[in-house]
Amino acid sequence: MERIIKGDELMLFNDEKSIAYATSHTLTLNGNTIDISSKDHGFWGASEIGNITWEITSENLFTEKYYDILFDAMINKTKLTVAFGFASDWNVNGLSGNNASYDLNKTTSYYSGKAFVTSLTANANTGENATFSITLTGCGSLVKKGSSSGGEEEEEEPTMDN
């Protein structure tokens, strides 16, 4: 039986640091469809997958340092190298992911790509911790990488076996 992964086990990294004090991450892949309907399809429409896009959103406790890093990346239109993978596979120093770093040769599996900061929202409610939300929109492919020996894995035919 497959092990169910806890949300705390997955983290989002930029270069060699986690994106600070994250409370949640969402990785979304979208297959954009192309209409291929014809008279031969009759009443029903038909489509196929054209390109695939991806984005990662993150909710974080606000720190001036990390907000400023992401603010500068957005304003300067800088592509970031991001990775989404198991925190236990990364070299986490201390109790908080704030100081986490990773070694790609030691990870078992992660997803990596280049992305732009396309949304950055600061939230400051009275009596609560300030937070920020970020959306990273992929620029190019999101690649599954890593294995016990490092490097890219060979692609296998996907299955839905339990």
Provide the structure class. mainly beta
Classify the beta-strand content into a percent band.
35-45%
State the oligomer: single chain
The N- and C-terminal alpha carbons lie at a distance of 6 Å
Describe it for me?
This protein is mainly beta and 162 residues long. It has a single domain, classed as Pnp Oxidase, Chain A. The protein is 7% helix and 42% strand. It has one helix and eight strands. Strands 1, 2, 3, 4, 5, 6, 7 and 8 form an eight-stranded antiparallel beta sheet that branches. Strand 6 (110-123) and strand 7 form a beta hairpin.
Give a quick summary of the entry.
With 162 residues, the chain is mainly β.
What topology does this entry show?
Blueprint: E1 10-14, E2 17-18, E3 22-35, E4 47-61, H1 64-75, E5 80-86, E6 110-123, E7 131-138, E8 143-145
Antiparallel strand pairs: 1-2, 1-5, 3-4, 4-7, 5-6, 6-7, 6-8
Name a few traits of the molecule:
162 residues; globular; mainly beta; 1 helix; 8 strands; Pnp Oxidase, Chain A; 8-stranded antiparallel beta sheet
